[in-house]
Hints:
Shape of chain A: flat
Number of strands of chain A: 0
Number of helices of chain B: 1
Radius of gyration of chain B: 24 Å
Distance between the termini of chain B: 35 Å
Oligomer: heterodimer
Amino acid sequence: MKRLIFICLLLMLNACSQLGVKPWDRDTLAEPAMAVSEQPLTDALEDHTYFSKEAASGGRGFGGGGCGCN
Amino acid sequence: MKKHAFIASTLASATCTLLGASNVLAAMNSDSLWEFDSAFLIYSEPDRVSALEPTVSAKRETTNGGSLFFKGVIDSLTGTSANGAVPTDRAKAFTRPSGDGNYTINTGGTPLDDTYHDTRLAISSDWETPLSQTMRLALGGNISNEFDYMSASASARLLKDFNQKNTTLSVGLAHAEDTIEPEGGIPEALGLVSEAEFDNRANDDDNSVTDLLFGVTQIIDQNSFFQVNYGLTDSNGYHTDPYKLVSLVDGNGRPFGDNSDIPSVIYENRPEDRARHSLFGRYKRKLDSGDMLDLSYRYSTDDWEIDTHTVDIKYRFDLTGNRYIQPHFRFYTQSEAEFYRPFLLQGEGLPEFASADYRLADMDTFTIGAEYGWGNKNNPWRVSLEYYLQEPTEPGNKFGELENQELLPSVDAILLRVNKRF
């Protein structure tokens, strides 16, 4: 099983190596709106709201602890 | 209407707060390297919980290419919360969580604890530093305190770039130590609610949570990237909600003991261990028109047998003059916890674990709304208005009087948020 996971990871990395752009072609990706976390405060407020109302949390970041609301 | 008036007045004060804060922070920012960000969230459920959540953060780049980040949050909650007991056709009185007096629920109403209130203060920091041309280390800390709960956590993440920084792999570890000190003490697990029970309570209990997170972020082309995260959360300790109850119903579906208006209810009890796996995928693309698509999906499963799916879609319409409007839709569905029991039967043996908390029931939730942004492209104002609906599935094993009652009514909420970066 571990070997299979390792092979899958290698295949995934190999597939990833076929993607991407040169550094000088990243003007659009460098725009604030295209950041991975464009609005960290909004993300945190959303995560906290849903953490207190639903049984799942996390995913885009760490998911556990920090509040007695659930 | 009362709630709408509340939202209007709170929005006015939130705007004033942000405008006031903007002057102070802009003055501080004029001669420093710090970037400030702020947000104010109003969450309001008609006849239930209302929350105000102002938050401020400060970030600066360090001379070696890293960054420092600080954040503060105040979270103020008031209102009522479903206590888990079933509604019935007779008025009933519940002992307050403090053990000091009762509150009465009229015929047919969902039993709501009217003593629900809390204020949380949370402070966090993150420090990111490069270890080499292609590797970064991020360390974080968080302290959160509310009147009956305290949490302290630390985290570390290692990020490694490959393929001319088109691929980033990350691995993270976080650990939190939480302490709960509920009003009235820790109730006896599955103990019958009574005044005598308050004499034997412990003051507090603990919970520890460890998170492991692996991630890949991949640039696809000049306009798009995707992100995949796998997370494992292992939690050990006190998971029970000390304010939640489970009704013991008789053969007629009524939660009363003999000749009494005092409902027959026990405190809930949840397992001390929980392990949760989550898989998160996200795709973000800027289109030729200038619009932007942000799409994500999350699957999670845990050993409480709760499986969840979440789909989140944001589409940003690029308007002229540095303005945009961004509709948002989110759908979430979960299966019930293996120990979820909307009620238990009098005279039958108690299970080891039981909770009637609707947040552990079969449930779908929907969020729909939109965000409007305007002003400076890098530091716009943003206002967001969203409608959030929780729809738990009504239990299928109702009988007698329970069949005349709605045990799990839908809960809707309005979320209003204002953001400003400086």
